[in-house]
Amino acid sequence: MAYSSQAKATLILGLPLVGSHLAQIALHVTDTVMMGWYGVVPLAAVVLGTSFFFIIWVLGAGFSKAVMPMVAGALARGDETQVRRDTRMGLWLSILYGVATYPLFYWSGNLLSFLGQQPDVVEIAAEFLQIAGLGMVPALCVAVLQSYLAALGRTQAVLWVTLAAVGLNAMLAYALIFGHWGAPELGATGAAISSVTVQTASYLLLWAYAAWLPALRKFHLFQNFWRPDWAAFGQVQRLGWPIGLTSLAEGGLFAASALMMGWVGTHELAAHGIALEAASIAFMIHMGLSSAGTIRVARFHGTGEAQELRRAALVAILLSTAVAVLVVTLFLSVPGLIIGIFLDETKAGSAEIMRFGVQLLAFAALFQLADAMQVIALGVLRGLQDTRVPMVLAALSYWVIGIPISYVLAFQMGMGGAGLWLGLVIGLTVAAGSLLARFWLLAPKG
């Protein structure tokens, strides 16, 4: 295939995935915007709570990410039975993990207090998490079904279900946070109830689509769902846990930065959350392209087409680079406009959040290209089903380099929140370089 054909195929597969990832982050952005309108302390609590939820979710989501290349590779080989086996055991592992981790949400208040967060923020965050934790199982099952459908080329369905979830969340959150339309005013608790409801509804919609669509019935995905398949269980687990730990290393980088920002101050933590939401929107575009790269590389890997495999990876890298350049331009040209979306500027403390948030967006612009390259590299490496060495490279980059440098710059050298974010830039840059080198050394040559 010519590079133009590769790019077209990647975009056909990837654009709906980009849309679904953007819609997914819109769920969190909606809550952040509404909590910003509601108050500074509730906003800081939800920023802390969603970081806590994400760090636990991202570890379990490794199983769903393992399903994507496994299903794509099995489909390329014409093995429909393996498609069902891998997806079903991905759902099993997700359910078991979600149930096992709920105690962390129930006792989250003690954990957050131990980590040195402000008492008024902890009280609200703990109430939020005790409810939000109930959404872990449906959220992980949604991720598995999204990977299954994406590997089958059914990305449009993933997009439309996620868009429906955004609309439902906006209505429920608006009603339950502020007490509109006859609903009680619940603040952060309302945001948690809305999230759990939307996660459950999304799972039911994807389940219905996967189970009843005539073209997908041949896979018999939910037939005898209760029956274990230990061989497939082991395969998904072996590929999935390094993916989860890799994502945990990266997600933990940002979660740890949120915790350390909480030591700096409540206004700084709120600004940190807003800047991260803006950066996360851009990151979701790269995530969609990364998923497309995973599927394309896995298909060519399954059929042994080495030259096409390398071309598919290069196209994904180039597309992601172009997006990163556009985002950098946006962050540097209109930072005040971006931060202002998340704030009611009549609220006390909004001016301080605005000032600090604009500064953080400049650092977010610095790490855009590195963040794009590391997630694309991880995606194409997963297409080769290479997950353990990338896990080690990511852990070293984020936790041996990124976090210690963030801490030293912020607290030992007195740079505060700016130092925290500079450490993020350094960690992500090291990860991007090492992971890209790993792929080009490992990719088969034709």
TrEMBL record:
- Indicate the secretion signal residues: none
Transmembrane regions listed in the UniProt entry: 35-60, 90-108, 128-150, 157-181, 239-263, 269-292, 313-341, 361-381, 393-414, 420-441
UniProt xrefs under PANTHER family: FMN_FAD EXPORTER YEEO-RELATED (PTHR43298:SF2), MULTIDRUG RESISTANCE PROTEIN NORM-RELATED (PTHR43298)
What is the taxonomic lineage of the source species? Answer: Bacteria, Pseudomonadati, Pseudomonadota, Alphaproteobacteria, Rhodobacterales
* CDD domains, sorted: MATE_NorM_like
Which protein are we looking at?
Multidrug-efflux transporter
Q: Which NCBIfam families match?
A: matE
Q: Where in the cell is it found?
A: Cell inner membrane
Keywords in UniProt for this one? Antiport, Cell membrane, Ion transport, Membrane, Transmembrane, Transmembrane helix, Transport
